[in-house]
Structure formats: C-alpha cells, structure tokens
Write a structure and sequence with these properties.
The chain is about 50% helix and about 10% strand.
Amino acid sequence: MVTSVFIAAVSLALFWMAAFTLWWQMHAWRTPETLASTSFDRPDGGRAGSFSLLLPARHEQAVLEQTIKRLLESSHSDFEIIVIVGHDDPGTAEVAERAAARDPGRVRVVVDTHEAKNKPKALNTALPYCTGEVVGVFDAEDQVHPELLTHVDHAFRSTGADVVQGGVQLINFNSSWYSLRNCLEYFFWFRSRLHLHAQKGFIPLGGNTVFVRTDVLRDAGGWDPHCLAEDCDLGVRLSSAGKKVVVAYDSDMVTREETPGTLMSLLKQRTRWNQGFLQVYRKKDWKQLPTRGQRMLARYTLMTPFLQAFTGVIIPLNVAIALFLDVSVAIAFVTLPAAGHRHGHLRLRGRRAPRLRQAVRVAHPSVALPQAHRRRSLLPGAPRRGGDPRRLPRASGTQRLGADQSLSARISSKTSERTSTRDLHPPPR
C-alpha cells in the first residue's frame, strides 16, 4: 500500500511539474493579443535618451573587435561603449585600446584591478564611469542589431519602465547534439517565459541585452559581486523594490550568440547558474515581494535546481519500478501514460492480468508489456503470490464472472475494429 501511494504521488508530482512548465513556456501564444504585446512598438522618432553600453571582456580578443564594430553601427545617436578588461589580460586590453583609439568619442576602456575577477565585479568597476541615462549590458561575443537601441529607447519612453529586457537567441543549433536543446531553451525563455514573469511582477533578468536606468541601478547598489547569477539577483532585488520591468522580443532584433563550444563548458555554465539561483534563494530578497502569488512564483523559480535534481534522481527509480515492481491494477492505470510512454514497460498483477494486458494493448498500442509469470496461478480464487492461501477474494463468483464477461466483450469489440476479417488472430489464452 505504501509503495503504491508513493508511486502515485511521484507520478502526479512529475505531471504537475510538466504541466506548469508547459503552461508557462507557452504564455506568449495564449491569445493573438498576448503575442502582439510581446514585441517592440515602432519608434515614433521622439527625443532620444542616452546609453552607456558595458562590454565586459576576458580573454575575448578573438571576437571583441567585431562586437565593438557592430555596436558602433547602431542607428541610435547617443551612446557610449565602455569595455572592461582585466589588468592581467594584455591580449584583450590591446584589442580594446585599439578600438578606443579609432573612435575615442564612442569607446572607452576601463581596467578591472580585482585579483579575483568575475562579471559583477567588472560591471561594478565601470558603473561610476557611466554618463548615459540608461546602462546596457552585452557579452563580448554578441551580435547586436543596429536598430536595437532605438527600439529600447522608445520602450523606455512609451512605457515608463525602469528596466527593459531584450531578447537573446542562440544561433549554432546544428553544431552539436546538445546545442539544439540549448537553443530551444533560450527561445522559449526569452520569447515567452520572461514575459510571464514581467506580467506577474517577479523576473530573474537575463545576463545580457538588459537595460536599466542608471539612477535605479546605482540606488540598488549595482550588481552583487559575490553572486554567481548576478543578473538573476539584480532582477529579484528590483522586482522586490517594485520597479517596472518590460520584456520585448523581436525575432529580427534579438541579440545572437553561440552555445558553449564543449559539453564540459556547458556543464560548468549550468552549474554556475544553478549555484547562483540557490544563492539568490538563500538571500531571501524575494520574500519582500508584496503578494503571496509573487513569492510562490519566486520560490518555485529559484528552487529550479532542486527540482531538476529531484527529477534526475526519480527517473532511474521510475525505470526500475516500471521494469521490476509489481503494482496494483488501479495504480497501474493511474500511472500508465507516464510510465508506459517514458519507459515502454509496465508490470500488472492480479487474476485478471491477462485480460488487462489485452485491454492495455488495445488502449495503448505503444506500451510493451512483459509476459505473465509462468508459475503464477491464473485460476479463479487462487491465492496471490506471497499471500495467505486461506484468504478468499471479496467479490462473489457471479460478480467476477459477470465482470470478466463484460471486459471480454469490450476487448473483443475493440479488437474486431482493429483487425480485418481476413487476418483475424485468436485471442490470447
């Protein structure tokens, strides 16, 4: 009994986790109006604000020059590019200084002198040098659309937002077996999921193509230098402070970048993100959110690493249960779609197991069921394996016979619909 309850509880928990995730990931496509509201509005040509674009770069000399060049091609009229390089990274510093010499009015270089370096420390180093009304963050390998700043500027003016989060999309989906999954994850996150978070008033911001009003960012104290997910942490703190966040996605103006080059690099990246989410969860800034619904959403989102770990542990257990554990008929039918389609096998027990197997084959042709154990008695009234021989079933013989005949009739009806009269196989014994 305890085992059956446990199996049912785990199956229902996994089902609801999958259902919630799917519902949230498809938020942008619920209605045509919702989909239309997720894009940038057309700029009206009004007064242009100013931008300070932060570009942290470490050992990025191979791609930094091209990224700066694309940013300089922006159609916006008022922006500056601040490249942050480490004092121990002469190769990247040389590329940045060369770009600043070519366009000194647009490009400046700031040196990060921290001994232990990370992205939030680099961003905080450059924050006092920002002169624009809005601070934007990009990565050194980003491909930025020339019209992006103009549309972001219009979004700030038309919505009164404190933060604007743009879209990011990975482009090398066919470079490795894991890159396609990574690209799809980015697409649904920026195209749909973040819009839901912005609507609910709680949002873990992305790491680049994010724009924050300079005074708001300074009032918040910049980025947490000790957090491994400084972008998520900033979004949680600004959400808790009641700041307005607008998310806009346009497939033509998304910032494009590539997935990590190796599987080990991807694992290190995801490990860092998961550890950062748990850091933000333990900081408990999310508890300052005003409504219970926001706090529940924050708790669920920030505990994602725990949920992923739970799923990783439970899947092998589900496989073992599906292959080796005998379960009652009721639990088997409750968990059949999940267990059958995930693992392809299911063990049924009881006196009516042969007929139930036939019913399962009719209802779920894709589920493979192993053959019944040869030593188990199938005679009516026979004791269950390991049970008391004197224990008799509760139902009377007449009731069992009627139920068996009704089930056999339904199975025969279904079987006759699926087979032709020329190729009719005898029912299994």
